[in-house]
Amino acid sequence: MVAQPAKNFEATSDPTGAFVMVLPEPGAYALKVDREGFYVFSDPAMEIPAPSPGAPAFELHVTLQTIYEIKDSVEVAGQPGMVDMDRTTPETTLSSRTLYDIPFPNQNSLRSGLRLIPGLVQDSNGGIHLFGGSEAQAQYTFEGFQLNDPLTGRFDARMSLESVQSVDVVASQSGAEFGRGAAGTMALHARTGADQFQFSSTDIFPGFDLGRGVRVGSFTPRANFSGPWWKGRAWFFNTIELQYTDTVVPQLPAGGNSFTSWRVDDLIHNQVNLTPHNNLFAGLLFNYLFAPRNGLTFLDPTETTVNRQSQQWFGYLKDQHSFSHSSLIEFGLAASRTHSREVPQGDSPYLITPDGRQGNFYENARRYATREQALLNYFLPAFEFLGRHQLKTGGDAVRLDYSQNIDRSDIDYLGLAGTVVRQVSFVGSGRLSRANYENSIYVQDSWRLGSSLLIEMGGRSDHDLLLGHWNTSPRAGFGWSPPKMENTRISGGFARIFDPTDLLLFTRPLDQSAVSTYYDASGNVIYGPITSVYTLGPHVQNPRADIWNVGAERSLPKAMQAKFQWLERHSTLGFDYVNSLPAAEQLPEILNGAPNPGPVIADYVLSNQRQDKYDSVEVALRQPLKGRFEWMVSYTRSSATSNAVIDRSVDQPLMIGNDTGPLPWDAPNRLLSWGYVPVWWKNWAVAYMLDWHSGLPFSVQDQYGQIVGTVDDHRFVTFFELNLFVERQLTIRTYRLAVRAGLNNVTGRQNSNAVENVLGGPNYLYQYGGQSRSLNFRLRFLGKTKPASQI
User: Please, what's the b/e burial string for 225-237 (b: 16 or more CB within 10 A of its CB; e: otherwise)?
Assistant: First the structure.
């Protein structure tokens, strides 16, 4: 008897771990399914029966079980460190257990934990930037729906670390279904309950700050409860988090050097298997923040702060239905609501001085924003033609709405001599509203030529009502394993991505106008009054980014995985409000002796003159160890520049001449390493995070608020942070606990994030801020252990 050659069959699961595989022949099969974030499923001797005459091919339906908690002494391990051959671009994945194993400041915040991603940089104000883009240029999704805040475009949604199964980050998507992420895509996947009721809690002890004496810096208890609505059919996962934070600014005098904030967030995610072929997902996320004296810094004392409140709601419903012949359709609805309120401490004049701000903040604001989204995705039945093809098509429809009610008071600039050198007042109404509609359609083909080559080709077309254009963008990518190098994958691709319109940007012509008057030291008018107005230019187009990437991944001995990625993104036709005043009537010429033109109108016209450029090279090494342990180290060399660094708006009082330079989050060199590793003693472990990068850029200005030289031509000191913790897991009676203690910023380095940047000021170029050394404890309740008879 001649042995038949082995045949391999492959399938790709959806984010829930479910997939469908068509097996054309009866016989004996060995099955192994391994996906990060789910338990390994295997059956070494599975017998497929012969179908009856006229019946369709046998379909194998497998649903993976989500990894929930490590509660048993039995270890289920797959084959870590293997290269995923079903992608055409390198991807970084953070599992939920990585996020709560690795120590980082403000560990209760998922947003803070995103620093563990090599391609993400946190700016001086806490903003996060994927692959050199602004925060609003990245696309954030949760269970497939857009999660960008409809008000700001940022990732402002708050959820606990335990509520997220994994975070997948890609610099450039070759998939045409992704259309709003020129700076990259971040996909968050929710955790799902199981057939057993389970409970866990974390951070029942507060954290202590050692920066100025021992004090409670934060207290963030959170709890998770999950289980079945109906065993075997419907499950829920609910997580709730409370946070109290007391932040101290050590440079300010006692009594006015701290501010507190309170947060609460709750997420419930539900999965219902209506039939073996039909899954329903539904969830609701709620965020609330109350932060009195928000904005306190060394340069912004208590009287300049605002009392801030915000609420956010995000709800979604998605239905997935699989058919025969490996096809699947999903459709869903989602809605977001954001409301923010900012109230100054009083109505005293707001003063900007060479050594900080004084008086009460000038803006009393209410802002509302909403988004409704409907999506449809359809995986057509796979077919053979010079290889295996899997077609996917779909689209979405989005409605955005923004409204505001803002009352602005005057701003006075005090010069180096202590006299008023500039006054800014506001005219017109700050009440406005505007809506927009966005639509998209796409088609994508994943073409597999044998087991070593995957080619993806697709196209996408986007439309929005404000500009009225249909923008078509091509996508292409490949993944290839060279002969006799099955553990190596070389990939690359190209994507053109169009930025959607920003309602905050397009409502500026409807907002108030700023009127500025300039004075000399004697109080004489030297320039103005100048009224700044904003108008939409003719023939404005959607900005676009052309993105090229090449990468390589290789599995090394002992489950190590090495990664290399080169990325280039060139953004053109970017939105920019350009001053139409002739140079002879602008402030620099007046200060050089030109006559005062008197009352004039500075018309800022929206154009497509902005160009951004980002280049990066990243090398990384990652190794999972026995159990849940792992470590990672990466180095990134990058450059992020623009010819329109500062976004001009009614609330941006700076005068800019040369606006070309590095973006505020440009970090040319970054070394990142983190790990959760075992030590010699059983049940003990060490967790660490090391982050070193170039100092971020900042600008220098004169007493009038005019940029001196070029933008961002100075830098903060080099950033270095080392967090080190020791953890022990123990069992008390039948309960498993994990106790952790350690220090954030072990070296106590002052990683400055603010600077006195007024030329000639009393503390010119003095840098301050950053996080002091802090002592933290964490007690995590892992649940009950199972009796030996159940293991």
Answer: bbbeeeeeeebbb
